Amino acid sequence: MTGFKFLSLAAVAAVLFVATAQKSEAQIGISIGVEPGCPYGYYDYAPYRCSPYGYYGPEWFNGGVFLGAGPWFHGGEGFRGNVNNRYDMQRGYHGRTPQVGERARRSTPAPRNFKGNESRDGRGHATDGRR
Questions:
Q1: Half-sphere exposure of residue 55, counting CA atoms within 13 Å on the CB side?
Q2: Is the peptide bond before 98 cis (omega within 30 degrees of 0)?
Q3: DSSP 8-state secondary structure symbol assigned to residue 81
Q4: How far is CA 123 from CA 14, 17, 23, 46, in A?
Q5: Nearest Cα to Cα of residue 40 among 12, 8, 66, 18
Q6: Under 8 Å between Cβ of 73 and 32
Q7: Is the CA virtual torsion 108, 112, 116, 120 positive or negative?
Q8: Which residue of 34, 51, 88, 131 has the fewest C-beta atoms within 10 A of its own C-beta?
Q9: pLDDT tens digits along 39-50
């Protein structure tokens, strides 16, 4: 009889445990929050740190406003823009990068004599040549 009581208590405990467990919903999309407010744009890969002055070419800006990159990209489907990947942290850049919310130190969003060495699509992909 003791074995039966033990088994019954275990069954009741299991039912209560399952009944009180929170139901989790499948995630359809990932909420990534607000677009980073960086003075010269931000890298197109997580964790989306601010990029330094000179990383993006002028085609990445519309009226001085950055078109976005990664999940916040606002450019057209076939967009290709030049970057200077010598300023890319994934390629060994260790220089200064601005902080989110920092104000631009220059009046133009990209250097006047910009020399890009890679073409990108804004979604984290290098494309097959410069524009």
A1: 27
A2: no
A3: E
A4: 47, 44, 34, 11
A5: 66
A6: no
A7: positive
A8: 34
A9: 999 999 999 999
